[in-house]
Amino acid sequence: MAMSEELLTDLYEFSMANGYYATLPHDQEAVFDVFYRNVPDNGSFVIAAGLAQVVEALQNFHFTDDDISYLRSLNLFSTGFLDYLANLKFSCTVRAIPEGTPVFPREPMLTVKGPLLQCQLLETFVLNILNHQSLIATKSRRICAAAEGRAVMEFGARRAQGPDASVFGARAAVIGGCTSTSNCLAAKKFGLQAAGTMAHSWIESYPDELTAFRAWAQVYPDSASLLVDTYDVLKSGVPNAIKVFRELRAAGHEPIGIRIDSGDLTQLATKARQMLDEAGFENAKITASNALDETVIQALLKEGAPLDNFGIGEKLITSSTSPVLSGVYKMAALKVDGQWQPKIKLSNSREKVTLPGDKMVYRLYRKDTPDQAFADVIALADEKLPEKLLAINADPLATDDEIELTDFVAKPLQLEVVGANASSIETDVMKLQASMKDQLAQLPKATQRLINPDVYQVYLTPKLFELQQRLIKEHHQKAQA
């Protein structure tokens, strides 16, 4: 049964839109930003992902007759509002930071501008997609960094929280660095490399392990990777694999390797490597699986485990150590009587005070090292960065407030992806992965550490900072009046 993505929205979004319809001009415009405040797993950045799905949905955004019938059955909305939805012509523009880009806290990764009613209805849907896929891409980046260039295969479909999460999670995992996925639907849909070997049930389906390995080699002589921990890795699994590998080589085929899915991976892999090498199979790969993540992988490699590949399931596809990216969707400006008014959300928590106005994010590079970024700047969309910029730290809890920036080149990160001037976006997942790797190479290495990463500075322009402070002051004065 096909799901109407237009109804993938919290009820209060429709309730607010119905209220807007009743009390405000129907063409009143607004600007909303998507951003996040806290990085999962105490990292320093998030890898943007999910934009392609958002754009695809918004290009055909409409409500079906069945959608309208359901909304009417709730007895909450006016006939006029339901007619508006039935005849809605989506007219918002969307700017966004491309997928695969490292994004830092408080930076608008997506901005929606258009009729307030339409902007409001997008909140849940857009956050659902961007939060999930960016979370998984970020976790994948961490795991792949820990693997230090070794192949990482995404194996998480059976542990994902539903079919949609498994398919789009696999896509995000490859954007974040994984080489392949076991998920055939994701591989087909997004042109990914499908990967996988066998389960223990294959071995258990034959009279003994050696017979099972021989049967597999008969069917897949040029891609024989054998799971060796069904019974005993060192006493039967590896010795039987070596027997079959010898038979394959004698028949003109070269085996792929073995996979270990349980036990002390360092000790087992070390002994298995020795056994394979002594038998003349120095090129046979050893793949490890079994509830791995970046912390476990780092520990294994630090211990010297001779592992060549990793299969990562539940801890990647659910980002289990930090399972939520709390991206938010906040109003930044509202057009009233033809004039744009910046909007701000205040809070007793300084880190929750929003940045007002329509904005643009820039990545800064030194003129003498144009391939090395050193900071980002959030500016108002209509301002031009001066050659000398007295920048204000965007972190509301920072102790170093201001810095003068000179001799830099500023590259805008957002581009229009929905609207009259929309640029085409990259959808090839492997190209997005390559772009992600290129952009990571432009960031200071210290900011990419998995533990205690250095802070990458994000600044505000004086004009944006002064606007924020003015609005804060005005609100406080109104509250005291």
UniProtKB/TrEMBL annotation:
Q: Which CDD domains match?
A: NAPRTase_A
One biological process term from GO is: NAD+ biosynthetic process via the salvage pathway
- Metabolic or biological pathway, per its Swiss-Prot or TrEMBL entry: Cofactor biosynthesis; NAD(+) biosynthesis; nicotinate D-ribonucleotide from nicotinate: step 1/1
Q: What is a GO molecular function of this protein?
A: nicotinate phosphoribosyltransferase activity
The answer to whether keyword Ion transport applies is no
Q: Does the keyword Ligase apply?
A: yes
The top EC class is ligase
Q: Where is the Nicotinate phosphoribosyltransferase N-terminal domain?
A: 7-131
Q: Which UniProt keywords apply?
A: Glycosyltransferase, Ligase, Phosphoprotein, Pyridine nucleotide biosynthesis, Transferase
**This chain belongs to which protein, by name?**
Nicotinate phosphoribosyltransferase
Natural source organism: Limosilactobacillus mucosae DSM 13345
